[in-house]
C-alpha cells in the first residue's frame, strides 16, 4: 500500500493537498528544540510514511533554501532557516504582492479579521508608526518595511 493509500477506507488512493507533507515536516521541525534527522521527523509525523518519502521532502525543502542541514554520522539533521511566524509572514507578503489590486486585497483581509485580530493589528500598526519617532518595540527596523522601501 502506498503512502497515499494509508488509512483510507477500502484502500482507495486519495492525494494529499499541495504542500501538505511539506507543511507537516516544517511543523515537526518548528516544534523541535534542535535539528532533527529524517527518522526523527518521521516519528513526529502522523500516519506511517516511508522513510524515503520523508527524506525526499527534507531534501526538497533544503534545495528550496527553507532548511539547513548538519552532518550527523552518515546522514543529516535538518532545521528550518526561518521560524514559523517569519515563514507565514513571507507567504502572506508574497500573496499580497501577487494581487493586482493591493488596496482591495488588504481591505478584504481586514474585513475578515476577528475582532481580537483586528485589535492586535491596530496595536501593531500603532507600535510601528511610533517607530519613526523612536517609540514602539515593534519598529520593524531593518526589515525593509516602511515608507522608504520604494513601495506605495
From TrEMBL:
Residues 129-152 are annotated as: Disordered. GO terms for molecular function: DNA binding. Pfam families: Penicillinase_R (PF03965). GO terms for biological process: negative regulation of DNA-templated transcription. Gene3D superfamilies: Winged helix-like DNA-binding domain superfamily/Winged helix DNA-binding domain. Keywords: DNA-binding, Transcription, Transcription regulation. Residues 131-152 have a biased composition (Gly residues). The keyword Glycosyltransferase does not apply. The keyword Cell wall biogenesis/degradation does not apply. Belongs to the BlaI transcriptional regulatory family. This is BlaI/MecI/CopY family transcriptional regulator.
Amino acid at each position: 500500500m502506498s503512502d497515499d493509500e494509508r488509512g483510507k477506507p477500502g484502500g482507495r488512493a486519495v492525494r494529499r493537498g499541495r504542500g501538505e507533507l511539506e507543511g507537516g515536516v516544517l511543523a515537526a521541525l518548528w516544534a523541535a528544540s534542535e535539528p532533527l534527522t529524517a527518522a526523527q521527523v518521521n516519528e513526529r509525523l502522523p500516519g506511517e510514511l516511508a522513510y524515503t518519502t520523508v527524506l525526499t521532502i527534507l531534501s526538497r525543502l533544503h534545495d528550496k533554501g527553507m532548511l539547513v542541514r548538519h552532518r550527523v554520522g552518515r546522514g543529516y539533521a535538518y532545521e528550518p532557516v526561518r521560524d514559523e511566524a517569519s515563514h507565514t509572514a513571507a507567504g502572506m507578503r508574497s500573496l499580497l504582492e501577487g494581487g493586482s489590486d493591493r488596496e482591495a486585497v488588504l481591505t478584504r483581509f481586514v474585513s475578515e479579521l476577528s475582532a481580537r485580530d483586528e485589535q492586535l493589528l491596530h496595536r501593531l500598526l500603532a507600535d510601528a508608526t511610533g517607530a519613526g519617532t523612536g517609540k514602539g518595540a515593534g519598529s520593524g527596523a531593518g526589515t525593509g518595511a516602511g515608507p522608504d522601501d520604494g513601495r506605495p
